[in-house]
Design brief:
single chain, mainly alpha, 75% helix, 9 helices
């Protein structure tokens, strides 16, 4: 009967321990990266799924899904038009706060669509936004909750003002403009 050399067993045990430690370190670093990137969205997703492992898989799935989108920055013309539309919308708030919140929601959707985000249900849109804009997805969720409250007739003017502030935070973050092409100096002289 062949028996394994004790030195071979020790070497094999060390390799197994190192592999397990390496895997644990990899998983801890990946978790830390997701926590740092997603912030409160990470905590919300863990709470929603009841498990850190399931939540992290959900976040990685989001990243894969969003990576397949054709997201593009706005042209400077489109960005200026969206910025002007937002400014006009804010100017109408005093006279029609309820209507303006509905308009703000639609303007944010229009901006998302122009950038290349698909227009699924709210939760899918929020999940998609969280990948590249994790710092403002909470604003989007808060604005949406106030908009739902408003539809039930339960939002007062202060709530609507807060919704507009939340929408503005997301809007400004999404208003990414493509860099202007650089014209070579010798082309200017022509």
């Amino acid at each position: 009967m062949n028996t394994l050399d004790p030195a071979m067993l020790v070497t094999l045990a060390v390799i197994v321990v190192l592999a397990i430690a390496g895997l644990a370190l990899f998983q801890r670093n990946r978790s830390r990266h997701l926590q740092e990137h997603y912030g409160s969205e990470y905590r919300r997703t863990v709470e929603q799924h009841g498990s850190r492992t399931k939540a992290e898989q959900e976040l990685r799935d989001r990243e894969k899904r969003v990576a397949a989108f054709q997201l593009t920055p706005l042209s400077s013309t489109d960005a200026a038009q969206f910025a002007q539309a937002w400014k006009a919308l804010q100017g109408r708030f005093v006279d029609n706060p309820k209507g303006v919140v509905v308009e703000a929601d639609q303007l944010v959707r229009d901006l998302m669509q122009k950038r290349g985000y698909p227009m699924g249900d709210f939760e899918r849109r929020a999940a998609d936004i969280s990948v590249d804009h994790p710092a403002v997805v909470d604003h989007y969720r808060a604005a949406h909750l106030i908009a739902l409250k408003d539809r039930r007739g339960e939002a007062d003017t202060e709530d609507l003002r807060k919704a507009l502030v939340h929408y503005r935070a997301l809007f400004q973050d999404l208003l990414e403009v493509a860099p202007e092409p650089v014209v070579p100096r010798h082309a200017e002289a022509r």
